[in-house]
């Protein structure tokens, strides 16, 4: 809701398969993804998205409750551009989405 109030168009999905399908259809500039998805974790979804030609150039933002160095390395290895730890700093999120 806060991103929408900030003037961003937002689409929410709640599973890995739906995320892959909708991202392919919508071709967003930015995807904010929680890592704790049902079926497949967010890192695997990011790897799959990075392999999709239609999502070339999309910015992937990982959203997680884990902020250790190894957690950040794991999201980086999966193809995420940024790693945000919950509770997310809204100013930081807005800056990353608007970039």
Question: Can you walk me through this structure?
Answer:
The protein is an alpha/beta fold and 99 residues long. Helices cover 43% and strands 15% of the residues. A three-stranded parallel beta sheet has the order 1-2-3, with helices on both faces. The chain is globular, with a radius of gyration of 13 Å.
The unreliable regions are none
According to DSSP, the number of beta strands is: 3
Q: Mind describing the biggest β-sheet? A: 3 strands, parallel
Percent range for helical residues? 40-55%
| Mean pLDDT score | 94
Shape: globular
Q: Kindly report the spatial arrangement of strands forming the biggest sheet.
A: 1-2-3
List the total number of helices: 5
- What radius of gyration results from the CA coordinates? 13 Å
Approximate strand percentage: 15-25%
* SS content category: alpha/beta
Series of H and E elements = HHEHEHEH
User: Cα distance, first to last residue?
Assistant: 19 Å
Question: Main traits of this protein?
Answer:
99 residues, 15% strand, 5 helices, globular
Q: Summary?
A:
It contains five helices and three strands. It is an alpha/beta fold and 99 residues long.
């Amino acid at each position: 809701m806060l991103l929408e109030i900030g003037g961003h168009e937002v689409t929410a999905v709640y599973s890995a398969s739906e995320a892959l399908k909708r991202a392919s259809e919508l071709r967003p500039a930015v995807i904010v993804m929680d890592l704790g998805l049902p079926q497949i974790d967010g890192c695997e979804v990011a790897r799959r998205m990075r392999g999709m030609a239609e999502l070339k150039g999309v910015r992937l933002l990982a959203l997680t409750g884990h902020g250790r160095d190894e957690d950040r390395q794991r999201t980086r290895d999966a193809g995420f551009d940024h790693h945000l730890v919950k509770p997310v700093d809204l100013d930081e999120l807005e800056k990353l989405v608007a970039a």
